[in-house]
Amino acid sequence: MANRLDTGALLGHLPLFRNLDARQLALMARACQEVRIAKHGFAFQRGDPANGLYVVAVGTIKLAIPSPSGQEKVLEFFTAGQAFGEAVMFLDKPYMVQAQALEDTLLLWIDKQDIYAAIDHDPSFARRMLAGLSLRLHALVQDIEAVNLQNATQRVAGYLLRQPREDGQIHLSVNKNVVASKLGLTPETLSRLLGQLSGKGYIAVEGRDVQLLDAAALEALLYGR
Amino acid sequence: MANRLDTGALLGHLPLFRNLDARQLALMARACQEVRIAKHGFAFQRGDPANGLYVVAVGTIKLAIPSPSGQEKVLEFFTAGQAFGEAVMFLDKPYMVQAQALEDTLLLWIDKQDIYAAIDHDPSFARRMLAGLSLRLHALVQDIEAVNLQNATQRVAGYLLRQPREDGQIHLSVNKNVVASKLGLTPETLSRLLGQLSGKGYIAVEGRDVQLLDAAALEALLYGR
DNA sequence: CGAAAGTTTGAGTTGCTTCAACCGCGGTGG
DNA sequence: CCACCGCGGTTGAAGCAACTCAAACTTTCG
User: Fold this and answer.
1) What is the C-alpha separation between A33 and B200, in angstroms, rounded?
2) Which run of H or of E encompasses A139?
3) DSSP states along A47-88
């Protein structure tokens, strides 16, 4: 029991489950299962049936659309405390995306039925669920906007500006290959563009650390011209 | 009262509101407002605050992301009975898309508060709402897949195959300019590709009517090579 | 320490766009 | 009634942004 995870406490801290009452929370904590995924392993793949949702306890998950030709389009990352895989659960369709661990990861899996029970029992849980899906939708629309209406440079600039930073310092949470895929670019193109922005003095890149030297200039790229 | 719309009956027929009880439905029917939008008019534009959702009573609405340069990316169309604009309602963000009428259109508008009330009152309503959002999400992911992992020809083939048809006969619900935008193409490119597919004998195009002559060949384009 | 993965740089290619001209058709006003 | 306009659509020629292919260099990790 030493290495045992306190699932109740963990769930209770998630925004999604925040004001679920104690009984309901305990029920859910008991119902959920721990799933360990090794680095590069999959929580689920395209075509798998969706019978529940996942919550990241430890680690990082990459959600991506695979393609027959081996390339993939990265949609989103999830780290400790975030839920994923909820959307398809409500339809009766198989996953059209895959969830891959970027490092050794511990997930909690909650059955569809238990989620439904929580929805029926607590309307505020339903609202949180709705808000969660809406947020996901919002992110996807942003992605679509980026790919369809912005050129490569603007996508990179936009991405950098959206990253969390402390005094202009950004640390990329994933490697540049993955960032490139998220932006709908090849690694080569991303590398060249970062080099270009560095050359102009807008940013300084060192490995996964990026310093924003001239955020205003980046915004100008995004909007003006 | 002759021209008066029976909102209660209309709402009651929507999948979203199907098994809302009579009292709740009546409440909602009384709460909702009729909104008339002339062709080319907007139900809302990017940046507008979202305080409720819309249901199409009569007409067609085009949801699109506008861009400063005047072009736009079409996301989806909505016709009689479909709801839209629900997603942003749950976040406290303004719309990032615009809803434009493709013809004279009559909408019903329902306030956020009334929706919340229905969610709290009837868990099955919440589930329907969740399913609705999930469906929207699914569609967006398909869109992203198309733009990122398929070439222009595949996108066109995929689109045609997804359209409702009777013995291979498709009728485009919107003009080709709009279809092109939905596919992330220029009108010129779409025209060329349709011509090309016609040339190969896979389809026959006449105005907005498209005959699928060889659906298998189109699927082959999508998957194999 | 060596193999594999990640990153950068260079050179050449291409799929789609852009620009431009043209056609046909429906509506509209003189 | 017909000339005119404007929009939707097609076609051609030229351009370019991003990709592909290839090779070298760097970092990570077993």
Assistant:
1) 53
2) helix A123-149
3) T----EEEEEEESEEEEEEE-TTS-EEEEEEEETT-EESHHH
pLDDT digits (tens, 9 = 90+) for A20-36: 778 888 888 888 999 99
Q: From residues 165-194 of A, list those within 7 angstroms of strand D by Cβ.
A: 184-186, 188-189
pTM score > 0.90 for this model? yes
Per-residue HEC secondary structure of B107-164 comes to EEEEEHHHHHHHHHHCHHHHHHHHHHHHHHHHHHHHHHHHHHHCCHHHHHHHHHHHCC
CATH 1.10.10.10 segments of chain A:
150-222
CATH level 2 (architecture), domain B7-140: Sandwich (2.60)
% of chain A at pLDDT higher than 70: 97
- In this predicted model, what pLDDT tens digit does every residue of B180-198 receive, in sequence order? 999 999 999 999 999 999 9
Please list the residue range(s) of chain A that carry CATH number 2.60.120.10: 7-137
CATH number of A7-137: 2.60.120.10
- With contacts defined as CB-CB under 8 Å, which chain A residues touch B71? 149
B126 contact residues in A (CB cutoff 8 A): 119, 123, 126-127, 129-130
Is the pLDDT at A1 greater than 60, yes or no?
no
pLDDT at B1: 40
- Select A150-222's CATH number: 2.30.30.100, 1.20.1250.20, 1.10.10.10, 3.40.190.10: 1.10.10.10
pLDDT digits (tens, 9 = 90+) for A82-118: 999 999 999 999 999 999 999 999 999 999 999 999 9
**A220 at B interface, C-beta within 8 A:** no
